[in-house]
Amino acid sequence: MFKNGKQFTLGVIIGNRDFFPDRLITEGRQDVLAVLQEFDIRPIILDEQAAKLGAVETWAHAKACADLFRRHREEIDGVLVCLPNFGDERGVADTIKLSGLDVPILVQAYPDDLDQLNVERRRDAYCGKISVCNNLVQYGFPFTLTTRHTIRPTDESFKRDLQRFMGICRVVKGLRNARLGAIGARPGNFNTTRYSEKLLQANGISVTTLDLSEVLGNAARLADDDGRVREKLAAIQAYVRIGDVPPQSVVKQAKLAVIIEDWMSVNDLDASALQCWTSLQQNYGVNVCTVMSMMSESLMPSACEVDITGAVSMHALQLASGQPSALVDWNNNYADDPNKCVLFHCGNWASSFIPEIEMSNAPILGSTLGVENTYGTVAGRTPAGPFSFARVTTDDRHGTIRTYMGDGMFVDDPLDTFGSRAVVEVPELQKLMHYICKNGFEHHAAMNASHSAAVLAEAFETYFGWDVYHHEG
């Protein structure tokens, strides 16, 4: 689901070539609609009376289908092309062109059965899919393929392809309209979090800025007994174990949350990146990590150190999986195991990653800023499970956006340290680290408790044209 919870919607094109048996189209249509219903996907598809069997073959059919799609343009998240037989390649391409849609496209074709290569049951969709894809390329439409060249919609392989395609559609639609908030200035010594706002804007990603002084000033003017502050304080206390954190430090965080969330609501922002040190501790006396953790858990990802492209990475993984993301440091080796490492932040991870979440301070920052000024971090250990990582960066020197992504596992190996932390295992991790260093990527990455790398790779490369390194070990 998208953040607004609306039902996922696909425009469906059933391709036909008239001299093949009609029953193939009827059966194919029934199969597709049954699978879409299984996944609670709303189909926008020609009625069987609007064109022969509700399929697209002629110019007139293409116009009718395109008109239907235009009427539902704002609702359609992607297009599914289904070929029960060879199909008409021009009819498919013309439909998409006339509709004006700019959404991901999935092309599926039926297999033939060896014992039914007769006039009554022969499909030839193996060949027809090549022709449809040839025309899509000629017309300039990027598209996604099923894992197998031909596959029945009722097959489990296609269902996995469909789930992956839904993630691709969410990423494409979500990033093309993403609005991010940058609060404060990056830490002075952190060149690593610099980025090109113009390159992001060229890809549909907008950045709205807010000076940290406005946040601190407005928060300081809120009274402790303000209704919004008390409400947010209760939410914090319900979200995380407070322990021995000074009560006034928690109240200060509640005030920050009110100001930040109000600003994000007014500006319709999807994600944020905050100046989390050192001005906040020196001028206000707390860390903002708990507030960021709560926003990320609510699917409004929030990144440290004004790392805007880190927030983009978090948002992309969240769109792909429907689950919260976190920003991490590739932080420590794990003994001498070349395929394991420690992920860390001081930290602001969503509670989904740390079930036994508790509020703490930041010992490392506290060594110079005073521990009493760093209350507000969240601490805990991520349990074993699936793990995806990703990074989006703007390559200003070459005027492009570059990315990497991959899958691994959270593991339960022993780890005695503080903060938000996890041990992960990634096949050929040393190869990945070499790639990150050689290509000048940041020390930050986004993580997600899913296996979503393939979704991001397809979305970024096919539909955005970004440079992609899909690490597969």
Write structural notes for this entry.
With 473 residues, the protein is α/β, with parallel strands linked by helices. The chain folds into two domains: 9-176, 3-Layer(aba) Sandwich (Rossmann fold); 179-471, L-fucose Isomerase, Chain A, domain 2. Helix content is 38%, strand content 22%. The strands form three sheets. A six-stranded antiparallel beta barrel has the order 10-11-16-15-14-17, surrounded by four helices. α1 links the parallel β1 and β2. α3 packs parallel to α4 (125-139) and α5 runs antiparallel to α12 (308-321).
Question: What is the approximate shape?
Answer: elongated
Round the mean pLDDT to the nearest integer and report it: 96
Distance between the termini: 30 Å
Low-confidence stretches: none
Structural class by sheet pairing and helices: alpha/beta
Q: Biggest sheet, strands in spatial order?
A: 10-11-16-15-14-17
CATH superfamily of the largest domain: L-fucose Isomerase, Chain A, domain 2
Main beta sheet: strand number and arrangement? 6 strands, antiparallel, barrel
What proportion of the residues is helical, as a percent range?
25-40%
CATH top level assignment of the largest domain: Alpha Beta
Question: Count the strands?
Answer: 18
Portion in beta strands: 15-25%
Radius of gyration: 25 Å
CATH architecture tag of the largest domain: 3-Layer(aba) Sandwich
Count of DSSP-assigned helices: 15
